Amino acid sequence: MERLGRMLVIAFIYIGTVVGAGFASGQEIWYFFSRYQAGGTWGLLLSGVIFAGLGVKAMEWGRRIAARSYLDFFGAVVGRQYALGCDLMLTVFLFLLVGIMLAGAGAVTAAFGWSWVLGTGAAVLGGILVLLKPLAGLKGVNTLVVPLLGLTGLLLNLGGVGVPVPPVAAGPVSGSWFWVALQYSAYNLILALPVLVTLHRLEPDPRLLMGGGLLGGLSLSVLAFLFHLVLKNYDFHGIELPILFLTQNWRWGWPFFYSFVLWGELFTSLVANLYGLVSRFRLVQGRAYPWKLAFILVLAALVSRFGFARLLQTVYPFYGCFALTILVPMALRPLPGPRKRRIKPEKGGFLIKEKST
User: Fold this and answer.
1) 345, part of any domain
2) C-alpha pair distances (Å), 100 with each of 92, 148, 301, 312
3) Given a cut of 70, is residue 284 above it in pLDDT?
4) 140-186, pLDDT tens digit by residue?
């Protein structure tokens, strides 16, 4: 049971790293899969295979080279020169994602009739407060929110639609479901790489890493499919939060439950992406540290004014194309030989100490 629990932690961290407000709101699933109808179903199956296969390979690659960051991984896969360009692209992507998460925060509060500024401002303040403390609690947040997201998908299929929604548009959708599914899988894996390639520092057992990666990758497709079953029947052009729109007339505390799940997914993504920027620029925790966090979040808040759905549909496909330039070499290249290093987990936290053998 203890080993199963460790494997589930890996799976939950994987799922929590990939899933964000775009997923939980239904916007991401509808745009990349559901609007393609049956093609979207095949796309979900393809993404599940990619998440399970390449996600596990990224974890094992990071373990074998004892990666301390995603920059080590990039250098091993595509060479040091292109790795610097990838580092720049991912850093910009993380910043844009913080803006997207802040836009999602404003969209949630606006959907309830509250101020957009209230939702965005609360997310900015919360991000600063959380990152003033160690992120060991991020594991606990994911193990709480991910099962609730699965419950949300089940309730959505059992509860039915609460408002009239335009049926799906007639005729073929522009673009290829195959290409879009590749883009979706690629940018999500790139986003998860800063965490995946360093998970060996949390769990050094390669068998548990593999089991957790496979379970997490396949579970992502199951969660997405629960949403897809409902979303594929309707046209959500111009609707930023499809799930909330569908269920806005539900009672029995559903709006509060779903808003909690949506905020949980949004906030864990916000904190993870912001922490990636903090790590990248090596912001030391000193007197100016909160002001540095606030400065990054204020800049990201300006980006968020472009709107949640608009940012998601513009930024994600572009970075999906970029991500393929890393994932294709990773898929084709064999795993490197393991370094002779022993990883000793540190009690009570995510970070560990590395020792040479």
Assistant:
1) no
2) 12, 22, 9, 7
3) no
4) 667 777 888 888 888 888 876 666 666 765 556 777 899 989 888 88
Residue 77 phi, psi dihedral angles, 5° rounding? -90, -45
The tally of CA atoms less than 13 A away on the side-chain side of residue 319 is 25
Instruction: Say if residue 174 is exposed, middle or buried (CB neighbours under 10 Å; 0-12, 13-18, 19+).
Output: exposed
At 242 the pLDDT is: 86
Domain CATH code at residue 314: 1.10.4160.10
Q: Where is 119: in which H helix or E strand?
A: helix 116-130
| Backbone torsions φ then ψ of 356, nearest 5 degrees | -80, 150
Measured CA to CA, the distance from residue 355 to residue 144 in angstroms comes to: 33
State the amino acid at position 196 in one-letter form: L
Residue 302 covered by a domain: yes
CA atoms within 13 A on the CB side of 162: 17
Q: What is the pLDDT of residue 352?
A: 40
Task: Report how far apart the first and last C-alpha atoms of the chain are (Å, whole number).
Answer: 30
Residue pair 180/35 in contact by the 8 Å Cβ criterion? no
Contacts of 51 by beta carbon, 8 Å cutoff, 6+ apart: 18, 185, 188, 189, 216, 217, 218, 220, 221
Determine the residue type at 250: W
Q: Are 122 and 131 in contact (CB under 8 A)?
A: no
Show the domain range for 263. 2-337
Residue 343 lies in a domain: no
Number of folded domains that form the chain: 1
φ, ψ of residue 98 to 5 degrees: the values are -60, -40
- What phi and psi, each to the nearest 5 degrees, are found at residue 283? -75, 115
**Phi-psi label, residue 261: left if phi above 0, alpha if psi -120 to 50, beta otherwise:** alpha
Instruction: Report DSSP state, residue 176.
Output: -
Q: Which amino acid is at 46?
A: L
- Residue 188 placed within a domain: yes
H or E element in which residue 298 lies: helix 289-304
Nearest CA among 106, 108, 128, 126 for reference residue 117: 106
